[in-house]
Amino acid sequence: MPTSDEAVKLQHDADAAPSAAEAVRAIDGIAPATGTARRVAEGVWWIRLPVAAGPGHVNVYALQDRDGIMLVDTGTNTPQTLQTLTEALRVLQSSCGTVRRVVVTHHHPDHIGLAGWFAEQGAEIVATPGTLAVARRMLHDKTLLRTPEEIGFAVLAGMKDLELAAFIRRPKRQYADAVAMLPDAINVISDGETLQIGRRCWRAIVGNGHAVDHLTLCSNDGLVISGDQILPGMSTNLNVPTDQPDLDPIAAWRDTCRRIGEHIDDRSICLPGHHTPFTGIAIRSRQMIASHEAVASRLLGHLQRPRTAIDCLAAIYRRTLSLAERAFLFSEAVGYMNHLANRGEIVGLRRGKTIVWQKQRRPRGDTIRRDVSPAISRPNNFSSEVDETR
């Protein structure tokens, strides 16, 4: 849940089927007090850290290793977060030792922010190749103003007039304000590799959708550290990045959920990046997918006539959004457009520098292709003409 890319957590999780929630159960509804660690499994402690945006917190996990503690995620690089985390770790150090390794699930500031600080204390940092590449690029991006590429992406999505002017004027948040500089030497972990931590073996599942090369860890005894891939009580943000306007993050996220499902059962415990650890991971995944399908259904009704991605924000979120919220969330609306286009259900239509979308017209008896793939382009679903007849 990054400061710059995910400042608002306004998802549509209420669309999920109510009956599904009955099988998603918190293992311990009491969050750790500030500066403390709560044991959630043998050799695993849950620490909650403050975050300024979104749900107001992030979860990190301390795992007992043979030679000290392995920390999964770190919180943001702020004095308050550092104080809270070091207080919690101090309690564990007498029995577990110091932090020797830090594993980062993805590049968002609330997950990677203090990794560089721990590296300065001598800890080894472990991250996926994509996480490392994006974090390094963003740490060195010092631009305060919107780039032509960012402005062009907003126009492509349908932003215009006063809203576009406000978007251009609003200074970008600096990634380096919340993320410590990373060391040159970082150990890379890739999909399918394993980590031996204490007596547990953890398999790395690297996926996309929420963040580039997002890491989920599945242990051989039923624990899943999911980062922001699977969350209870809120949806995962699936935004389209400016430099990949055709990306389909929903398909990529669903594919990652499917692969995680191959390594869990009904007794598996999810240790998420936000809110409370829970059981019922497969049910929760289906619940989140149902939420996206409910939004897709609303959008198909909304796109009986041509509309831009920005025009569809009300249909997705079902409430009036502020300009700041719209500036963040429009890229997720673009993701829905790309996803429905890749499914063959809508078509993109050029109007100058903007794309408008409408429901695909099909001959009677024709069926809509329902398969979902992580394709990132829509060459067969794009037209240069607008059908105004609907």
UniProtKB/TrEMBL annotation:
Transmembrane segments: none annotated. One of its GO terms (biological process) is antibiotic catabolic process. Residues 360-390 are annotated as: Disordered. Residues 57-274 form the Metallo-beta-lactamase domain. Residues 363-372 have a biased composition (Basic and acidic residues). Pfam families: Lactamase_B. Belongs to the metallo-beta-lactamase superfamily. Class-B beta-lactamase family. This is Metallo-beta-lactamase superfamily protein. It comes from Rosistilla oblonga.
